Amino acid sequence: xxxxxxxxxxxxxxxxxxxxxxxxxxxxxxxxxxxxxxxxxxxxxxxxxxxxxxxxxxxxxxxxxxxxxxxxxxxxxxxxxxxxxxxxxxxxxxxxxxxxxxxxxxxxxxxxxxxxxxxxxxxxxxxxxxxxxxxxxxxxxxxxxxxxxx
Length: 150
Description:
Number of helices: 5
Structural class: alpha+beta
Helix content: 25-40%
Number of strands: 4
Order of helices and strands: EEEEHHHHH
């Protein structure tokens, strides 16, 4: 990811202290602590089928089990019926925050939702997480063949 990074070893842990170049299409970085995180940029003119497939994949592969279960079951239930605007809201919600735990805290009601993420899709997701039907969600749903839209 980084072409040239200086690191400092402190008590048997690696710490990123300086990065000279970011090897990707991102120009800006945000810095949390000492780690540079690229700023998310929405993809322009992405076909809706590709957008749905990407969001399904990103919903399943979160890096933390809790969000993987919540977002994959949500994507399975709602992704195919979302319009383009809702898909973009969902894309922003799962890709812009740099901390997946914040997404978890927002949807479970542990933290207040920032204005920029308090959207129709967030309301749908919070309703899904509330699980009024008491569905069992202990594993990710099986993948299905994508529905072709024209």
